[in-house]
Amino acid sequence: MVVFAGQGDARRSMALLWRATGPGPRTGPGPKPGLSVDMIVDAAIAVADEQGMAALSMRAVGERLGRTAMALYTYVPSKSELIDLMHDRALAELPTGYDLGPGWQAAVTSWAEDVRAFYVRHPWVLQVSQARPVLGPNEFAMMETMVGVLRATGLRGGPLRGVVSLLTDFVRGAARTVAESRQAPAATGVSDEEWWYARSALLEEVAPGFAERFPMVAWIETDDPPPPQSGQATTYLEDKARPAFAAGLTVVLDGIEAAIARAGVRPAG
Questions:
Q1: Are 171 and 115 in contact (CB under 8 A)?
Q2: Number of Cβ atoms within 10 Å of the Cβ of 90
Q3: How far is Cα of residue 250 from the mean position of the Cα atoms in its chain?
Q4: What is the CATH number of domain 104-263?
Q5: What is the CATH number of domain 10-91?
Q6: How far apart are CA 17 and CA 35, in angstroms?
Q7: pLDDT tens digits for 84-118?
Q8: Which residues 6+ apart lie within 8 Å of 238 measured at CB?
């Protein structure tokens, strides 16, 4: 399920994102005192965190707040604007500064780990397409932080934009694997251990000589953790994802180092 941001009225969405109209409701009859845009957005994030994007609706958010869906429309025009607000507000959790004293590599590593953890906490954010950004203050703050760290590499212009794109896609992709592995048991009714236990045993039966037929696949899987056994609570894909993320990030950092060398620039510090 992919959700495109910015589908609501452009002026109203941007005004709400940047609070250009103030924190209160739009002009018109007001609901019970105590409701606000921030309360609605926080409740919507809670719904999406607990039940997923598919469960998000103005009615579901209203029920969580003990109000009707109609009461919310005085503050947020529609679900489209609400998604924009949710996405941008969630991004406010991310740090806005990193210590460059130990070097840009350490700062990029910390940034990548923080963003990956953020996506895993809020997997619904991964369903908001990056093709059309929200253009909210926290989205820009995230970009400002990332570029501020990467500027220390000495790269500029096109090469730096390419690095930004690469890192963003790498971290989102890594987080998506973990998020989906956590969602799979509830969505399918089958735990990871049950799924792997059944299929790993059958693979040996239906594909005799697997290692001879697919030697490269067998070789690269040699150091993988074994499929989970009955009673294990950890997620198999998560066990594989942790070292894979670290190894992949190391390759990305090495690639940035190579780009710096080709550009003939000197990193800050």
A1: yes
A2: 23
A3: 20
A4: 1.10.357.10
A5: 1.10.10.60
A6: 17
A7: 999 999 999 999 999 999 999 999 999 999 999 99
A8: 178, 181, 182
